[in-house]
Amino acid sequence: MADICVIGAGPAGSTFAARMAQLGHDVCLIERARFPRSHLGESLSPGVLPLLETIGAREAVDAAGFRRVRSVLVKWDGEPQVREDAREQGLLVDRGDFDRLLLERARALGVRVLQPASVRERRSDDGGWSVNVEADGGAAHLRADIVADATGRSAGITAHRRRTGCRTLALYAYWRGSNLPEQPRIEAGSDAWYWGVPLPDGTYNTLVFVDVKHFRATRSGSLPARFLDLLDRSGLMAGCHDARLIGPVLAADATPYLDEESVTPLSIKVGEAALAIDPLSSSGVQKAIQTALAGAIVCNTMLRKPEASTAALRFYQQNLADASERHSRWAAAHYGSVVMRSGGKFWQDRASRIEAPSPSLPRDALSADALCAARVELSRELEFVDLPCIEGDFVTVKPALRHPGLEGPVAYLGGWELAPLLRRLPVGLTPLQIAQSWSARIPLQSGLAIAGWLLNNGILVGQTVGRSASKC
């Protein structure tokens, strides 16, 4: 018997399995491929390592000797420039080794791993799942309360995907040579964009992102020939005089999407089984791990506190939808910067999600005197609503602020719960007095920061003439 059956041992699957084991559940992880195996997603954003601390995997990844990213050569909406990161927070990894380290951490936490193995049949009923597995060395039968799909784009559980961006194809190939670039390169072309990734083993991965429809409509020549022609239009191979291909030219779907049935009482999808973001962000692995950590809390809630299952389901679905929307807007804005440089249809299509900012009333910046003298009150547009949030190891419902100045309901700011601070807030206090009134619960400096945020977002407004001020 397993509380949880996880299918797929990429970063999302291994992280989810490890976290569920930490929370005290019996977990079985099924992976069809032998490790190590190659995989795209070799450039990791700075947010990955802090996330891995949750499952205790950061130390092993730090010790693996993966390349740190200190600089990136960027030619996007202007002349080429080198973007520096003195803290070297990003990583260039061998995904075979990286994924193996996460799987080993899951195993060390007590996860039972079947590898290589594949699911031959799964059936759900009111009591959970019956899963038949063909494993190396024989067959296995599992009973599980929840099945977690971490199979990425291949969709182990029926997909309900809504495309959130233009259909995009990634063409890529690996090179060896004596003069290969030592820093990542990103470049915008006329009808494609390019990404070069130097890897820990001395190879260099070159990727070209093209529009699926346009690429299929202009078939002329073999895939390798077309790839090399596109690559020649960029500077990714500049200076690589003796570079040689060490494998075939490959193609992979890079279209962003959101699965709109990402969680049910008996199943959950994590990583790219649930959400794929535009590759331009270079944070696909980070987002996959984030979904795994959030998904583990959701499943822990459904198993241990079934009365909170509805809130847990709502939290996960909304969390993914919000993440998808944020990434879509971010990507559209970056594609739009190339449109402003006379980018063609490829860029215009991808920038089409940019929305004009909503007009807002001008607000005067508060001086130190105003902080102490301006009397304020809560905006009449402020509402308190129930919002599912993570608290500890469970999803719970917390009161949150909803206001036109916010993108969505907010329950916490800087780790402090907002609604208890604002309920029954007297009219006519200054921001300083408000922060002082909270000092028994939070430090004054934090209170001042929260009061400033409330002012900047229109939640605290100038006192209406005629309303009574509190005596203080």
Give me the count of strands: 28
Runs in which pLDDT lies below 50 for 5 or more consecutive residues are 356-365
Number of helices: 13
Query: Structural class from helices and strands?
Result: alpha+beta
General shape? globular
Give the helix level as a range of percent: 25-40%
User: Termini distance?
Assistant: 63 Å
Mean pLDDT: 92
Residues in β-strands, percent: 25-35%
How would you sum up the major sheet? 8 strands, mixed
Instruction: Please give the radius of gyration in angstroms.
Output: 25 Å
Question: Could you explain how this protein is built, in words?
Answer:
It is a single chain. The radius of gyration is 25 Å and the shape is globular. A hairpin with a 5-residue loop joins β5 and β6. The model is unreliable at 356-365 (pLDDT under 50). It is built from 13 helices and 28 strands. By secondary structure, the chain is α+β, with helices and mostly antiparallel strands. The strands form seven sheets. Strands 1, 2, 8, 9, 10, 11, 20 and 21 form an eight-stranded mixed beta sheet that branches.
